[in-house]
Amino acid sequence: MIIIKTKEEIENMRKAGEILAACHREIAGMIRPGVTTNEIDQFVERFLEKHGAKPEQKGYKGYAYATCASVNDVICHGFPSAAPLKDGDIVTIDMVVNLNGWLADSAWSYAVGNVSEQAKRLLTVTEEAMYKGIEQAVVGNRMGDVSNAIQKYAEAEGFSVVREFIGHGIGRDMHEEPQVPHYGPPGRGIRLKAGMVMTIEPMLNTGVWQSKIDADGWTARTMDGGLSAQYEHTIAITEDGPIILTKQ
Fold first, then answer.
1. In the chain, how many H helices and how many E strands?
2. Smallest Cα–Cα separation from 170: which of 29, 52, 53, 9?
3. pLDDT by residue (tens digit) across 112-157?
């Protein structure tokens, strides 16, 4: 069942999104060779506590961290670690913020030092693909219009779109209906209505779109070892167009 949010509920989620966006702005200043994703994770814990919020994914199905930290060929759900980031790496930091029971979810990919031209293009195209999807998240469109806008743009730029991990509705629960694929034909799927709140979070790869899961049961990697990037916003669909609740 899709839970339609009131304007007041969307405002509550926007407040969570403001904290999340502010946290990402701080993280952007931390990204450099030598920093560890453990240090970033610990910073996020302190930042959220200082702002009266909680990391929603910590404890989710036994997950032990405040963030997911996915480096290079890791698509998503990577564990923060003590391994220093290296010059040329790319890293995605993903988090869900709980403020007074209302959630916001956003992932952002960062370049570490001097990255390759291919990595730069991957980051640029993945972010733009997310916005292409958001542009289609308007009342009266179908979910397939969002999905297709992302896939059409990404593939035209030479990148593949991950199928196994998709966006989702969000509110008081991290994963609500509807599901939000980032691929598929236009004009299909549910009709979008005002009050729907969801994440749009494409993951693009430099090689094949298929993934494999590490022995830890969480970490998803590209099947061929190619690079992967992800950008994610939580958005609300309104009569006046989509509102980004996690805008940085």
1. 4, 15
2. 9
3. 999 999 999 999 999 999 999 999 999 999 999 999 999 999 999 9
- Check: CB of residue 234 under 8 Å from CB of residue 242: no
Helix (H) or strand (E) holding 97: strand 90-99
pLDDT tens digits for range 54-101: 999 999 999 999 999 999 999 999 999 999 999 999 999 999 999 999
Is 73 in contact with 226 (CB distance < 8 Å)? yes
**Whole-number Å distance between alpha carbons of 115 and 234:** 28
Rounded Cα–Cα distance for residues 26 and 235 (Å): 21
pLDDT of residue 195: 98
Tokens 């994963």 -> residue: 175
Q: pTM higher than 0.85 for the full model?
A: yes
* CA separation for the pair 37, 63 (Å, rounded): 16
Q: Which phi and psi angles does 171 have, rounded to 5°?
A: -170, -105
Q: Is the sign of the CA dihedral 201, 68, 110, 44 positive or negative?
A: positive
Strand partners, 55: 97
Judged by DSSP in three states, 73 sits in: coil
Q: Is 47 exposed, middle or buried (0-12, 13-18, 19+ CB in 10 A)?
A: buried
